[in-house]
Write a structure and sequence with these properties.
Blueprint lengths: L9 E2 L1 H10 L4 E4 L3 H6 L10 E3 L2 H4 L8 H12 L10 E4 L5 H11 L4 E4 L2 H6 L3 E7 L4 E7 L4 E8 L2 E5 L5 H11 L2 E6 L11 H8 L3 E3 L5 E2 L4 E2 L5 E2 L5 E4 L2 E7 L8 E5 L3 E5 L16 H16 L6 E4 L16 E2 H7 L1 H6 L3 H9 L8 H9 L7 H7 L17
Parallel strand pairs: 1-5, 2-3, 2-4, 4-5, 9-10, 10-11, 11-14, 18-19
Antiparallel strand pairs: 6-7, 7-8, 8-9, 12-13, 15-16, 16-17, 17-18, 19-20
Helix pairs in contact: 4-5, 9-12
Bound molecules: fe (ii) ion.
């Protein structure tokens, strides 16, 4: 549980993550502008009660020199009756600076208020790693970026490591490998990502390791331009050794034409963007949903042939509801056959599946075309632009999983 000691005035993003995972009640007072708020909010297992009051509105009737006095005045007139007294209130802004004054103003009005240190920017870039299995012979670590619902993996065996779908904050993986005393020898992407910038090429360069991608994803699907990154071609059924562990590549076109899954030691299936926990991947991010949906159907049926005890490890989750009590996002193929609506439909006819999938597509995020360009090395971006492109939660899954739980 987060530390709610009255002497503490800040929540670090780690505390926010813990609070969200444990479903502890708190209230969010978000002072970002309306556009920022509408595009991306803090989400938990349950709906988090929150209000959006852009900070500039609180300064409209500003008769004070001190910003906190102005906020106190505004809050006293408009909000003191409406805000909870029992639960902690978390003041949030983009970087955690303005919200610090808001939290201070709320405390002066006797609320239990805290500031989110670093704001939504820090929350968006927060990572958390948990082991799925951990021994010298075999380690599988799930590296989560919870605000975006992005998951990546490190597989280790006898001092060697492979990374699967690493994200762009490469220091996270470098530190994890150092902590576990392993050498990164292989970097794999399951596909050319559209929702986030891959850390694959830069990690491969940093660790002098090969980076693999299926060649179909080495072509930007909208621009139809070849990638300008250094990568090796993946093939269906290609095998990799990591220490004593064994990875097999399964080419499963559908979400992208070069989409693959990796099967580790016939037991752990890194599904990338194909099977998630509550949903399946969308087939339209290359602009060819009609043509790719039947491929997706055939690929899902191929994965469904694997044994029931195969552990499904996806590249995304849509909400913390897909994360278990142990903080891990995983399931087995046996459980998902009946529980995952997309997989239920994949067990019906191709026609029914295609109808279902094409009627379940969420909006097409325009920035995804540009992210694919960055991942193909067709466009270079700095940190500010990279952050802007990645703002908000991934939308790689079908829409069902996005209905908010009340
Ligand atoms: Fe994707």
């Amino acid at each position: 549980m987060a530390d709610n000691d009255s002497s503490t005035t800040q929540w670090e993003v780690e505390q926010l993550h813990e609070q969200l995972e444990q479903g502890e009640p708190f209230f969010v007072f978000d002072v970002r502008n309306e556009d920022e708020y509408e595009s991306w909010k803090i989400e938990g297992r349950k709906k988090i009660p929150m209000v959006n009051v852009p900070y500039y509105e609180m300064l409209e009737v500003d008769e004070h020199d001190d910003i906190v006095d102005s906020f106190v005045d505004f809050l006293e007139k408009r909000w003191t009756e409406k805000l909870p007294r029992e639960e902690p209130i978390l003041a949030v802004c983009a970087k955690g600076d303005t919200s610090e004054f808001v939290a201070e103003a709320l405390r002066r009005l006797d609320f239990r208020a805290f500031n989110l240190e670093g704001g939504t920017a820090a929350w968006g870039d927060h990572y958390h790693t948990r082991p799925i299995v951990e021994s010298a012979e075999l380690g599988v670590y799930q590296v989560s970026r919870p605000a975006r619902g992005c998951l990546s993996y490190m597989v280790t065996s006898n001092g060697k490591a492979a990374l699967i779908d690493p994200l762009r904050h490469t220091e996270v993986y470098a530190s994890l490998a150092a902590e576990k005393g392993v050498d990164i020898e292989l970097v794999l992407d399951t596909h050319g990502h559209a929702d986030h910038i891959s850390g694959g090429p830069s990690l491969a360069e940093k660790f002098n390791a090969p980076y693999y991608l299926h060649p179909y994803d080495g072509i930007h699907p909208i621009d139809v331009m070849p990638a300008r990154i250094d990568y090796r071609y993946l093939k269906d059924n290609q095998e990799f050794e990591v220490g004593d562990a064994h990875l097999t590549t399964l080419h499963i076109p559908g979400h992208t034409l070069g989409n693959v899954a990796y099967l580790l030691d016939d037991r752990y299936l890194f599904t990338g963007d194909s099977i998630f926990i509550e949903s399946i991947a969308r087939p339209d991010l290359g602009g060819r949903g009609d043509a790719w949906a039947p491929l997706h159907y055939a690929s899902l049926r191929r994965l469904l042939e694997l044994p029931d005890d195969t552990v499904v490890l996806p590249a995304h989750f849509s909400g913390l509801g897909e994360v278990g009590a142990d903080g891990l996002c995983r399931s087995t193929l046996g459980e998902l056959r009946a529980a995952n609506q997309g997989l239920v439909m994949a067990q019906k006819s191709e026609e029914e599946f295609v109808d279902y999938i094409l009627s379940s597509l969420p909006k097409f995020p325009e920035e995804y075309v540009e992210i694919k360009r960055v991942n193909a090395g067709l466009v270079e971006v700095g940190e500010a632009k990279a952050s802007e492109l990645e703002l908000g939660k991934n939308i790689c899954a079908l829409s069902q999983a996005y209905e908010e739980e009340e």
